[in-house]
């Protein structure tokens, strides 16, 4: 009877509202991420990102990340650490805490010497990497003259 009246869907709607921080919290999360989801928190990373899973959703939608609220609107996919990248993209079903190879890699003191900490992609920001030039430019800026009139214009400027 409840299936015909869709009471289970209404109950699920209110459960999602409650899990996302009530009415105000749900409106804010909907405004920030364009979706409301209900799932199990499976872990967090060193930046405060929270990783969730709900197998009720279809395969490509059942895992997601909620980025740290401190980044506000400047979140992007490069803020997902390498530990969680494989899990969020369905390359493995093992969580980083359950993966023996990752645990051995990150707990070894020798790897700590050369393994750099994760940092997001900074392209398009003030901190972006711009390499310096080591070669002369092959293309000259056009000055409005043809090659044949360029020498005559240079002689006029000298006079």
From TrEMBL:
Membrane topology note: Peripheral membrane protein
Subcellular location: Mitochondrion inner membrane
Keywords recorded for this protein, A-Z: Electron transport, Membrane, Mitochondrion, Mitochondrion inner membrane, Respiratory chain, Transport
Keyword Mitochondrion listed: yes
InterPro entries on file: NDUFA12
GO cellular-component term (any): respiratory chain complex I
Keyword Magnesium attached: no
Coarse class of the protein's main subcellular location: mitochondrion
Superkingdom of the organism of origin: Eukaryota
GO BP: any one term: response to oxidative stress
Function: Accessory subunit of the mitochondrial membrane respiratory chain NADH dehydrogenase (Complex I), that is believed not to be involved in catalysis. Complex I functions in the transfer of electrons from NADH to the respiratory chain. The immediate electron acceptor for the enzyme is believed to be ubiquinone.
Assembly notes: Complex I is composed of 45 different subunits.
Family, per entry: Belongs to the complex I NDUFA12 subunit family.
Protein name: NADH dehydrogenase [ubiquinone] 1 alpha subcomplex subunit 12
Species in which this protein is naturally found: Leptidea sinapis
